Amino acid sequence: MVQQTTERPTGGLCAHCPLSPAFPEADRCQPGDACVRAHSGRQIDRFFRRNPGEAENYLDDIFWERRAIAARYAPIDRIFRLRSDSDEVVRRVVAGRLPDSQLHAMTRDPDREVRLSVAARLPETELQQLIDDSDYLVRATVARRLPHGQLAQMVRDPEREVRKVVASRLPAFALHLLADDAEPEVRAIVAERALPELSARLLADSEWWVRLAAVGNAPPELLPPLLDDPELEVREAVAGRLAETPATPTAGK
Questions:
Q1: How far, in Å, are 58, 86, 165, 236 from residue 184 at the CA level?
Q2: Mutual angle of helices 41-50 and 64-73, in 10-degree steps
Q3: Residues ≥6 apart with Cβ < 8 Å to 215
Q4: Shortest CA distance to 56 belongs to which of 43, 70, 68?
């Protein structure tokens, strides 16, 4: 019987690879599956998973995807300089890996996704750097993380979605800052969370869903006039709230 032998590939991507034949022979890579020279993100990632120690050797590679994947595996102290890489995908990887104390240099990155990563990880004390970011998603992320005492700075943000986040986080005593917001979705959040006297004021709001939100928070003695509200849902909410409210004892009984 003739003994069959398996030969390692010597052509294709392996032909001029500096890692061949040593790496294929040691099963540290495999053409078509785990290959650092392939133009396939999956194959490159599989290669670095097997050989993380090789990653820093590819941080200056001409192929952006190879640099980006290498940046996931390289030691953190080797990827600082990639904060200004020409490709935004590489910078996104860096923004997700750097220590949060080193992210301040990326707050003005031209790529929104990079700044979103920065906004999600930046220390709270440095979030002020992004409070006026040009992208509302970045500002919304800031609003979700900003200390409560600083949120009042964002009540006049031009984007409704940002103000909705602010309304959902402001302390109840400060919600009067958004009670006259132009957007009913913002006012509805205020009505639902505000102190009773502010919710009472919003019982007269022009939008029915703001009135509906206020019903659950306003003093019950102010609700009976809304039993004649033009919106059925408001009337039903008022009737339900009044039914749950204990009657006030008559004086002298």
A1: 52, 43, 14, 20
A2: 30
A3: 203, 223, 226, 234, 237, 238, 241
A4: 70
Q: Which of 170, 159, 222 is nearest to 192 (CA)?
A: 170
Q: Up-side HSE of residue 99: CA atoms within 13 Å toward CB? A: 6
Please tell me what DSSP assigns to residue 36: T
Measure the CA–CA gap between 41 and 89, rounded to whole angstroms: 12
What confidence tier does 183 reach under pLDDT thresholds 50, 70, 90? very high
Q: Which two tokens stand for residue 183?
A: 């957007």
Q: What is the pLDDT of residues 47-102, one digit of tens each?
A: 999 999 999 999 999 999 999 999 999 999 999 999 999 999 999 999 999 999 99
* pTM (two decimals): 0.85
